[in-house]
């Protein structure tokens, strides 16, 4: 669906902030899958992972993705949403997927300056720098596979939102032109 924008990328790549900027500008609903998971379960992600493990969290996350993929909305996904092939296929088929590509250094700096970092469970038990570097290296091919467009999210979030907005409007314009180019049915 051309009017559904899905943002993927590692945590702290700016998906939620950029998504909210876009939603306000485009007058579309904004959905953060991490927030929906927490509301539906009445638990933080850390609590879900501690009590049920990563596999169960990923299953819940995938179910939520399918529930919230609506026409005319902007969806910020959890950083690991791309781990599942089913989720990758779903996103590619249900919206325009933008990968907010960031360096490990940018992610680490953003996480260190964010007080909510302590609420995010470690995936590996490594230092934050080692963990983020490893995650980006492992998941980058999955983000690339899923995305229709890759955006440099090391920039200011407003600039990232502007880049996505420009691409989105070009796609809408092209779709409208294509629709007008279809000859009318004749009897």
UniProtKB/TrEMBL annotation:
<dbReference type="InterPro" id="IPR000623">
    <property type="entry name" value="Shikimate_kinase/TSH1"/>
</dbReference>
<dbReference type="GO" id="GO:0000287">
    <property type="term" value="F:magnesium ion binding"/>
</dbReference>
<comment type="similarity">
    <text>Belongs to the shikimate kinase family.</text>
</comment>
<dbReference type="GO" id="GO:0005524">
    <property type="term" value="F:ATP binding"/>
</dbReference>
<feature type="binding site">
    <location>
        <position position="139"/>
    </location>
    <ligand>
        <name>substrate</name>
    </ligand>
</feature>
<feature type="binding site">
    <location>
        <position position="58"/>
    </location>
    <ligand>
        <name>substrate</name>
    </ligand>
</feature>
<keyword id="KW-0479">Metal-binding</keyword>
<keyword id="KW-0547">Nucleotide-binding</keyword>
<keyword id="KW-0460">Magnesium</keyword>
<dbReference type="InterPro" id="IPR027417">
    <property type="entry name" value="P-loop_NTPase"/>
</dbReference>
<comment type="subunit">
    <text>Monomer.</text>
</comment>
<feature type="binding site">
    <location>
        <position position="120"/>
    </location>
    <ligand>
        <name>ATP</name>
    </ligand>
</feature>
<dbReference type="GO" id="GO:0009423">
    <property type="term" value="P:chorismate biosynthetic process"/>
</dbReference>
<comment type="function">
    <text>Catalyzes the specific phosphorylation of the 3-hydroxyl group of shikimic acid using ATP as a cosubstrate.</text>
</comment>
<dbReference type="GO" id="GO:0008652">
    <property type="term" value="P:amino acid biosynthetic process"/>
</dbReference>
<dbReference type="GO" id="GO:0009073">
    <property type="term" value="P:aromatic amino acid family biosynthetic process"/>
</dbReference>
<feature type="binding site">
    <location>
        <begin position="12"/>
        <end position="17"/>
    </location>
    <ligand>
        <name>ATP</name>
    </ligand>
</feature>
<feature type="binding site">
    <location>
        <position position="79"/>
    </location>
    <ligand>
        <name>substrate</name>
    </ligand>
</feature>
<keyword id="KW-0808">Transferase</keyword>
<dbReference type="GO" id="GO:0005829">
    <property type="term" value="C:cytosol"/>
</dbReference>
<comment type="pathway">
    <text>Metabolic intermediate biosynthesis; chorismate biosynthesis; chorismate from D-erythrose 4-phosphate and phosphoenolpyruvate: step 5/7.</text>
</comment>
<feature type="binding site">
    <location>
        <position position="16"/>
    </location>
    <ligand>
        <name>Mg(2+)</name>
    </ligand>
</feature>
<keyword id="KW-0418">Kinase</keyword>
<dbReference type="InterPro" id="IPR031322">
    <property type="entry name" value="Shikimate/glucono_kinase"/>
</dbReference>
<dbReference type="GO" id="GO:0004765">
    <property type="term" value="F:shikimate kinase activity"/>
</dbReference>
<keyword id="KW-0028">Amino-acid biosynthesis</keyword>
<dbReference type="Pfam" id="PF01202">
    <property type="entry name" value="SKI"/>
</dbReference>
<protein>
    <recommendedName>
        <fullName>Shikimate kinase 1</fullName>
        <ecNumber>2.7.1.71</ecNumber>
    </recommendedName>
</protein>
<keyword id="KW-0057">Aromatic amino acid biosynthesis</keyword>
<feature type="binding site">
    <location>
        <position position="34"/>
    </location>
    <ligand>
        <name>substrate</name>
    </ligand>
</feature>
<keyword id="KW-0963">Cytoplasm</keyword>
<dbReference type="InterPro" id="IPR023000">
    <property type="entry name" value="Shikimate_kinase_CS"/>
</dbReference>
<keyword id="KW-0067">ATP-binding</keyword>
């Amino acid at each position: 669906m051309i009017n559904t924008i899905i943002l993927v990328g590692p945590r702290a790549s700016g998906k939620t902030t950029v998504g909210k900027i876009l939603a306000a500008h485009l007058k579309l609903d904004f959905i953060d899958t991490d927030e929906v998971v927490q509301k539906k379960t009445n638990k933080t992600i850390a609590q879900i992972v501690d009590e049920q493990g990563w596999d169960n969290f990923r299953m819940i996350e995938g179910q939520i993705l399918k529930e919230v993929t609506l026409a005319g909305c902007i969806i910020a996904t959890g950083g690991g949403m791309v781990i599942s092939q089913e989720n990758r296929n779903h996103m590619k088929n249900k919206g325009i997927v933008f990968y907010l590509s960031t360096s490990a250094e940018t992610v680490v700096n953003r996480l260190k300056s964010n007080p909510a970092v302590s609420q995010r469970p470690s995936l590996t038990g490594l230092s934050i720098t080692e963990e983020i570097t490893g995650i980006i290296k492992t998941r980058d091919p999955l983000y690339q596979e899923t995305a229709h467009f890759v955006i440099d999210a090391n920039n200011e979030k407003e600039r990232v939102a502007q880049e996505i907005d420009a691409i989105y409007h070009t796609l809408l314009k092209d779709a409208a032109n294509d629709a007008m180019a279809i000859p009318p049915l004749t009897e």
